[in-house]
Specification:
By secondary structure, the chain is α+β, with helices and mostly antiparallel strands. Helix content is about 35%, strand content about 35%. It has one helix and three strands, in the order αβββ. The structure holds zinc ion. Zinc ion (ZN) binds next to loops.
Length: about 120
């Protein structure tokens, strides 16, 4: 196989790959639209919340590696691999999966005996 024949084969292969990718992207857009419409019209009946953990990278000061000198001293950061909680719930009706790593404060209005203060 000569170089130009090989190059032509590669170009054909890439062209075919691009065409196929564009078709898949168009199909994906249609399916995403269908799913979004169903999810938007669903009343949602979510399963109990499930908590798992996922890998997470945090950045903290690296005190072992001072930068600068004298009073102009500062520290770089280092990446520390850790994990964080992830909460998920799934709708029993449409299958939508909601996922979050955020939490919010909840203020309760529970009644307690009032013994003065
Ligand atoms: Zn739903």
């Amino acid at each position: 196989m000569t170089n130009s024949v090989r190059e032509a084969a590669v170009v054909d292969d890439i062209r075919e790959a691009r065409r196929e990718r564009d078709q898949v992207a168009a199909r994906l857009k249609v399916l995403d639209g269908r799913i979004a419409r169903v999810e938007a019209s669903c009343t949602h009946d979510f399963t109990p919340v499930e908590q798992t953990r996922e890998p997470h990278v945090i950045y903290e000061p690296d005190y072992t590696n001072p930068i600068g000198r004298g009073s102009d001293l500062w520290y770089g950061e280092r990446a520390v691999e850790t994990t964080r909680p992830v909460w998920t719930r799934t709708c029993r009706l449409c299958g939508k999966v909601e996922r979050t790593t955020e939490q919010r404060d909840v203020t309760t209005t529970a009644k307690v005996p009032a013994f003065g203060r």
